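User: Second chain of the day. Same drill as before.
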Amino acid sequence: MKADSSSLGPWQFTTWYLLGLTALVAVACSVGVTFGWGWTVLLLVSAPVVWLLWHPGRRDAGCVVLAVAFTGSLLLSVSMHESYPAWVPCHRNLSFIRMGLLQYHDRHGCFPPPYIEDDQGQPLYSWRVLLLPYVEDQKIYQQWHFDQPWNSPHNRPLADQVVDIYRCPASPQSNQPLTDYLAVVGQGMAWEQGKSLTLDDFADGLDQTIMLVEVEGSRVHWAEPVDLDRATMSLQINGPPGRAIGSLHEMKSRWSSQPGANAGFADGAVIFLPERLKPGEVEAMLTRDGGEQVDRERLR
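Assistant: Same format as last time:
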């Protein structure tokens, strides 16, 4: 004899109900992958409500379904809240800095040098100081003494102010006047000591050359004339903290997540570099005139 939904006791389900619930979860996951997980939350909550309206006699079991769906949606929302902010704001910061560099180039006809030197060739302060007006921080820039080092009695109180655009929000030290975004300086790189390069110097192509990288644990003061030295850095993504491109967050893909770090290219794009990249591939993206070509679509 067939089981009629009206003859079922409290908390009992037919096979069709269970199959329908399974199908609902599968559809919700597919919707989340295609259109975003916010739609999954909406679907998981709204579908049981509609089911209750159509089956007023099964509200006992329906309440259980609704409670399970609501709990799952809440956990999914918490998971989304904890994971996404780890890399999205960092990506935005790098994009903003890259746009600032392009605006600097438009005004001066070149990119800034890695650092400013005094008459004796001693480093005074970083390119990040010169970029302040282009990343909406005029207050510090207007008070800066450009003939003095970053840690002089006058400049040091200014340098000790936190510049949020130079900090990754996921960094455990985001409230300190440090930077998580560094240039890679060296011969053939996008930055060379004592040089102010132009867009014409990027023979490999702007879309093939990294200008800025995320560095977890850099301990570099944002105004300090220090960046990654190509000769001493590690080419392993998430290598030794402070000496390699790296971060504390992961990029969420369709069905998994992968560790890595953000990098800003000379054309203004910011791309997440996965940890699986080989040192040779990283090297190819760092050089501006090495003749290598990298398929950026493979990084996505």
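The chain has a mean pLDDT of 81.

User: Great, on to the next one.
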